[in-house]
Each structure stands twice: as C-alpha cells, then as structure tokens.
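User: These chains co-purify. Model them together.
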Amino acid sequence: SPQEAAFQDRIDAGETIEPQDWMPEGYRKTLIRQIGQHAHSEIVGQLPEGNWITRAPTLERKAILLAKVQDEAGHGLYLYCAAETLGISRDDMTEQLLSGRMKYSSIFNYPTLSWADIGAVGWLVDGAAIMNQVPLQRTSYGPYSRAMIRICKEESFHQRQGFDIMMKMAKGTEAQRRMAQDALDRFWYPSLMMFGPSDAESVHSAQNMAWRIKINGNDELRQKFVDQTVPQAEYLGLTVPDEKLAWNEEKGGYDFSEPDWEEFFAVLKGQGPESAERMKARRDAWEEGQWVRDAMSAHAAKKAARREAAE
Amino acid sequence: SPQEAAFQDRIDAGETIEPQDWMPEGYRKTLIRQIGQHAHSEIVGQLPEGNWITRAPTLERKAILLAKVQDEAGHGLYLYCAAETLGISRDDMTEQLLSGRMKYSSIFNYPTLSWADIGAVGWLVDGAAIMNQVPLQRTSYGPYSRAMIRICKEESFHQRQGFDIMMKMAKGTEAQRRMAQDALDRFWYPSLMMFGPSDAESVHSAQNMAWRIKINGNDELRQKFVDQTVPQAEYLGLTVPDEKLAWNEEKGGYDFSEPDWEEFFAVLKGQGPESAERMKARRDAWEEGQWVRDAMSAHAAKKAARREAAE
Amino acid sequence: MLDAGFDPVGALALRMGDNALILGHRVSEWCGRAPVLEEDIALANIALDLIGQAQLWLGLAGESAGKTADELAFLRDAWDFRCLLLVEQPNGDFGRTVMRQFLFDAWHVEMLRGLCASSEPRISEIAQKAVREVDYHLERSSAQVVALGDGTEESHARMQAALDWLWPWAGEALVADPVDVALAEEGIAPAPEAVRPGWEATLRRVLGEASLALPESDFAHRGGKDGKRHSEALGHLLTQMQWLQRAYPGATW
Amino acid sequence: MLDAGFDPVGALALRMGDNALILGHRVSEWCGRAPVLEEDIALANIALDLIGQAQLWLGLAGESAGKTADELAFLRDAWDFRCLLLVEQPNGDFGRTVMRQFLFDAWHVEMLRGLCASSEPRISEIAQKAVREVDYHLERSSAQVVALGDGTEESHARMQAALDWLWPWAGEALVADPVDVALAEEGIAPAPEAVRPGWEATLRRVLGEASLALPESDFAHRGGKDGKRHSEALGHLLTQMQWLQRAYPGATW
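Assistant: Joint model of the four components:
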C-alpha cells in the first residue's frame, strides 16, 4: 500500500517513528514482542543475580550488586513504558509472560552457582547484551531507541563491574580461580546463544532489518562478541571451553564452535535448568502481590473521590 | 458422695485407675488438662531443637538430635493416646492448643541461639522434665503412668546426650566455652520455672496430690533440681548465673534466687521470645496439612468401601 | 553495669550499624519478588541506603579495635550483634515488610535527628548524611502504611495483623538500657525518652490516617540491642549473609 | 573421559553418600512441621536412615584421600557434591516431598540391589545394610503416593502437580554418564540401563494405582551426579548445613 511505502521511505531516510505516527500492524506487533521480551528479560534477569545478593561477600559488593539489580528493574520499567506506547499495557504483558506466551532471554534460565557467576553474568551476559543493544540505539521506533540509549549507558558500567569481579577471582586464591573458570565454562555457550540462531535459520530477519528493528545479523554480532571476549579471557588467565577456538588470520577473527542449538530450543521450551524456578518466582510474586496492587488502586480511587467530593 | 469416697480409697490404697473405671469429673478434667499440656509440650518442644537439626555440626550429632526429636514426637503420641482414653480426641486437643485454650511448657518459648543451647536443652530442660516426671510414673491413672514409664526411660538418655554436648563445648575452644556459658545463662532461670510457681501460690495442689496426679511439691522438686545441677555446672567449669547461690549446710541443699515469676506469667500469656513463632509454626503445620489429613481419611474410606463392595 | 573499657562511640556505632546492616539485608531479600516493579526499585533503594549507612557506622565501630566494617559484618556470630529484634524479624508478606519498615523508620529518623547533635563529631557527621535518606524512607513507608491500611478490606486486615504481630518488637528501641543511659549522659546519643515523643506522634498520625488500631499493650521484647537474647531468625540470616567469608577465609573479593 | 587417577570405589561411594546426605537433610527440614504426628515420626526415621547411610558411604568415599565423612559433608562447596539434582530440590508442599521420596526410593532400591552384588565387598556390605531400610522407604512412599493420589480431588491435583514438577529431575539417575559406564565395566555398580526396568515397573505400578499420569516427556535435567551444574537450591542448603563447621574451623563437637 502507499501508506506502507511512505512508512518505509521514512525509515529508509533514517527518520524516527513516534507513537502517534501511522505504522503497519506487523511493525507494531513485532516491536511489542521484541520490546516486551526485552523488558521481561530485565525483570527475570533480576533473579539469578538476586540469588547472590544475600550472600555477597563484602558490603561494597552487596551494594554494587543491589544497585545493578535495581538498574535492571529500571530498565524493565523504561521498556514496558516504551511498549505501552504501542498500545499494550504492562499488566497484559505480564500476564503473557506468566502464561508463557511471551518469552525472556534464555540465559536467565541458567543457575548462578558461585560468586564468580555474578562476575560472569556481568562480563559475558551484559557484554553480549550490550553488543545486541548498542545498534538498537539507532532503531526506527523513537521510544525504543531512547530507552536503549539510557540502558546502554548503564549496561557498559555493569559489564565493567562484572569484569572487575572476574579479575578479583582470577587473581585470587586457588578456589577463587577455580570458581572463575567454572563460571566461564558454564556461561560461555549460553552467552553465545544470546545472539540467537544463525541468520540463515532466522525467519523474520529480512523484514525486521528493513524496518530497522533489527540492525545486525546474529552471526555477525556473535563473531564480534567472541573476538572481543577471548582476549579478555586470556588476560584473566582463563580458558574458553572450546577446543576449536583459534585465531583465523584470514577473516581477522576467531573460529569457534557453535553452541548446542538443541539445548537452546529446549531452554526456550522451558527446559532450562532453572526455568521452572524462574517462572515460579515471578508467578508467586505476581499472585502474592495481587492484594497490594488491588489496595493501591483502591486507595488511589478513594483519594480521588475524596478530593472530588471536597471540591 | 460415696462413689467419690470409694474412688479416693482406691487411690489411697495405691490402686491404679483405668479408663473404664468410674472417676470424678474433676479428676478427668484435670488429667486431660495435664496430659494434654504435657503432650503439647512434646510437640512444640520439637521446634527449638528442630531449629538446629539443619545446622548440626557433625553427622553423628545430626543423627542423635534427629533421633531425640523423633522420640519427643513419640512421647507426644503416647500422651495423646493416654488422654484419648479420657474421652477427648487428639484433634480436639490440637484445636485447643492452636486456639490458646490449652498450654504447653513455657520453656519452649525461649529461642535456641547456638549449638550449646541444644546441649543446655538436654541437660537442663530434660533434666527438669525428668525430675517432674519420675514421680509421675506412680501416678494414679494407669495409661498416664504407663506412658510416663516409657518416657522417663528415654528422657534420661536425652539428658545424658545433652550433658555430653555441654562437656564438648565446655572443654572446647574459647568460643565454644563462651557458647556453653551463654546457654547456661539463658536457660537457667527458665529451667527453674519449669517446676511452676511456689506451692504456696498453686491453687489446685492439695486436691491433685490427694488424687495422685501431682506427687511432689514444686519447691521441693526445684530444690532437688538445683542440688543436682549445680555440681554438674561446676564440673563443666561453668558459672550458674545466680549471685545468691550458696551451699546451705543446715538444710543440706543450695540457697538460690527465685526466677522472675512476672516473666513466667508473661510467657504463659504468650509473651515469650519465640511464643508467636512457635504457635505460628504449629498453626501453619496444621493448616497446610489439612489437605493431607483429608486425603488420608478419604482414601481410607474409599478403601474400606471397595473392600466391602468386594465381599 | 558497664565495664571499665566501655567505648561509647563504638557501642553507639555498632548498634546503629547493625540495625542498618540487618534491615538492609532483610529488605534485599525481596529482590525480584515485589508486588510491583516500582516496589522492586524502591526496596532496592532502601536496602542500598541502609547498607551504605552500615558501612559508615561499622567502619566507625571497628576503629578502636582496628577492625573493618566487613570484618564486623561477616565474622561475628549472632550474640555479638547489637541490632534491634525488630529488624531481624523475617519479611513475612509485603504488608509486614512495610510495617516493619515504618515502625523502624519512625524511630530511626528521631534517633538520627538526635545524633546530629551528638557531642562526638564523627557520629553527627554520619547521622547528618543518614537522616536525609531516612527522612525519605519514613515518608515512603508512611504513605504505604496509609495506602494499604486504607485500600481494601483485605489490605486493611493484613496491615492490622502486621502491626499486631510486630508490635511486641517495636518497643525495644524506646526502652533505655545501661548503654543508652551512658550514651545519653555523655551527650553521645539522645536518651530513648527523648526519642519517644516524636516516635509516638508519628505512629499516632500515620496509623490514625491508615485507620489502624495501635495495640494497647506496651509489652516489648528485649535482648537485641544488648545482644542478650536475639531471636532465632538472626542466626539463620547470618548463615546466608556470612557464607562466603566463612567458607573462604582470607580471600579478597 | 575419566582422568588417570579415577577411583571407582570412591566415586560410587561419593555419589551414594551425597544422595543420602542431601535428601536426609531435606527431609529433616520437616521436623515438627508435618501434617500429622505420625508423619513427623516417619520423616525423622527416613532422615535418620539416610544420614546413617551417608556416614557409611562418605566414610568409604574419603578413605583413599584420608578424609572423614564429616569433612566431606561439611567442608566441600556445592560443585564438589555428586548428588542427583532430584534430592536437592526444595521440599515444597508435603505432596512434593512424598513424590520426591518415591521417585528417589524407586531408583535407590534398584540401585542398592545391584550394589549388593558389587565386585567391591566394602560396597556390597553397605548396600546390604541400606537396602533393608530403603525397601521400607519405598513401601512407605508408595503407599503414600497411592493414598494421596486416590484421596480427594485436591490431593490428586497436588500429587499430579508434584509429579509434573519433579519429573524433569527424576531421569538423571537413569542416564549413564562416563562414571556410570566405568563403574559398570568394573563390576562396581549396575549400569543405569540395568536399573531402569525395575524403576519403570515400580513407577507404572504405583502411579497407576494412584491414578496419576506419568509425564510423556523423557527430558531429564543433568549436572548433579557429575557436579557440572547443580541447581541453585543446593548452595542455599549448604549455607545452613555447613554453618558451624565453617564458622568455627577446627573445633570438635
């Protein structure tokens, strides 16, 4: 349609789409799914790190971790707001998360089993997230793009903090070094999965790229992540758990093994090691919080009524 | 009445009253209250010790403590059965416990705060309990007397185990010695309270003694307990927290300070440090277990019906 | 009553620091589990403020003995803690967490105001920083108590139950013990009696607005701030909080 | 796959011991909180049996390295544990505890029967003692699964939910890993494939009688018995279990 063509022209011209603008239904739906999934990831992502807040080893580490998890909740909030501009409410999105119709990043279905995992989450998971998100600062939808700009600023901070934990562990006692290596062993492939399956298998890629909802290819970002991370692992004195890993002079990047995509799809289906626990935690929080949300709206309504009556 | 006189004659002759025998209503009621309270004490008494089962310091200590707590549940069972012979059901007694109409020993409203407390509970609390219970083996009501005989056998074993923990602590590291002393400091007076207020203030004593439901006076037993326990404390190298404590050659026993009876009555009212937690734990267990009890009776009824139908 | 080596500054700092540490820990247990996202953020914020205050107070508390705040936080057993029993109490439902916060904030803010005028400059300095944060905590917890007390029948019942449950632990802060007396005499800290009127006024105002009934009993459990008898809950909290430092002694993190 | 210093007896004993230890611990968490008094007693009994078995197995496991059962129980961190993921799972409601016990018992009894014929006499000796206890555990947990599955609509729903929830953790024991293969080759332990038929028969019989539907998926989480990826629950359990030994190193109790 001419409307669609005009829309595409605006995007091609690098213009930003705003909530009040006309947009194709597919664009709106895809964005809701993508932003919602990202928002849910921030929320569920609080849990694996929250798992160590009560066991953080020093007061400073506890404060840093608390602040980080708080930032993630904040990111969730920005993103829900961005999605709301597309005509879906936060409660709707939450219901869809809890019923399993909306997903969140598969990485958060893995457990955090030692303090080094908190380092690895910052270093690898936030590292991969940034790689995904930095280009999205230039995405076509205005509210989403502005949310990503705020988020990226904080994420790179988180990644440095994660790397700092890994440094302390890798240069620490033998047990700490072992924890650091074990964390890398467990988080390496799940981190590679964060970029999604190979573009060849990704159905919607072309349209999303045309809409500037997706900016780079999955394989391209994954390569970039590996190229950035391997030297950091070497600097830490840790071994990336990939026997095929080797520098490829020709392509100017590392050759590396693909993650186990069967595992990836199993985790997406809810078979991740902590999938059931994560959903249970969110569902419990939602159900046990119902009376609070009800009370808050009831109080707000009463207050408004009283104000009105007084006028 | 002549019936009452005959009843009293039997008791005076040292005979045992059995469930099918006639008995005065007051006798029955008092026994229900006393046995029920004792049974509830065994049940609630699992909680302060259960509090350290998951933190027991060695596998052997864990096994010993588990076995002990299991014995207590068993004691509760004997005692509920004894009370049931008087025409009250276990469920009724439980409801009365949970609604606060029936009491349990005030000692179990105190917290167990270190491993030494587990020793102190065995040494002091079981020690005081035994002192109360040994004479009750000769109580006039048959089922109660027989229950007490079984219980006393196990209790003295528990007391030795408690003393053994105290020994290990008192002869252990400085921190362990400090734990042992701290436990004695906190459990001394509550243990003295276990014998009840001075006989002078005890209303029902005379009748209960005539009925052989109560055998010795409270002060008498308390004195005996102090006389037995003080040398044990000395042997452990611990200090009884009583500046007035002194050997009285004339009476052939120790002079000692009375416990704070105001605290005792406050604790009975539900103001003990862990009173609310204890009742909450029992209430939660009862409420959360309702579906299990319902299912078990439903299953038993179905099974019986199927058996009948098959015949 | 107090031994010769009594260090008033250390004693005050330890009490204030342990309150902040333990309540901060309790609040942090909510992470990712609050009824609304905004509450997740707000609870993390309060926990952060309290952990920050704990660092300052415990740093001061350890000065004379040459101990760091971390050593005090992670290497003492329960009996050496000097926090109020109130802050050790488990979170319960959200209503109980809010009520615990309110009861504590109402005391905390008055105490900190008094400490701003402490004769000891290191104390008044920390208090001046903390009181700004705690003013906000009280504002927030008051508003929540009012909203949830006023909200629905269920929320009102839950808030009243929370108040009734927590009340016996609320009074400890307001009952003077020998340490309080000594600190007041030296002008280090306000006496509990000086703190009480403001605390009571806050309670009456907020609970009144929330249509919650103040329990009549003035019975108060004791044993937290003097360490004589903490509740069982504290020991369990420490098994988590101190795990890493205990399991890997001497490591740096 | 296995390194040169692989100690088959130690490896088997560690797996068996850790299962008994961790499940025994979980069961002991019920103390004083069961739905009926008889269950309090029965649960304590099971916990006692399992802790006793843990002592024997861990004693054997530590022999070659000169470690005591207590050292193994209280001074290893999560990654060095070799228990099945199933036994680490939190208790949940009583139905889930019963179901976890049943799923474990059904495997445990078959495994122990196989171990009675181990080529290693120290293993068969422990197995012969344990199997008598575990026969009884299975009898009991089977009866409970049947009773609660059959009981009321609510209990049936709860038991089915428990089964569905636990199912992904039930299969790990039955999937061979390199250690299992090596142990079977040396005649130390039965191969998981040898254990499976009996396990499946028990499940079909009991769940059938309980009118509970066996989940269709054969997906099984892994990472417990090889220690590669325990669940988060284990670390929390250890903070309690190991507290005293960690906090007071070197003390005797």
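Strands of chain A lie at 246-248, 253-255.
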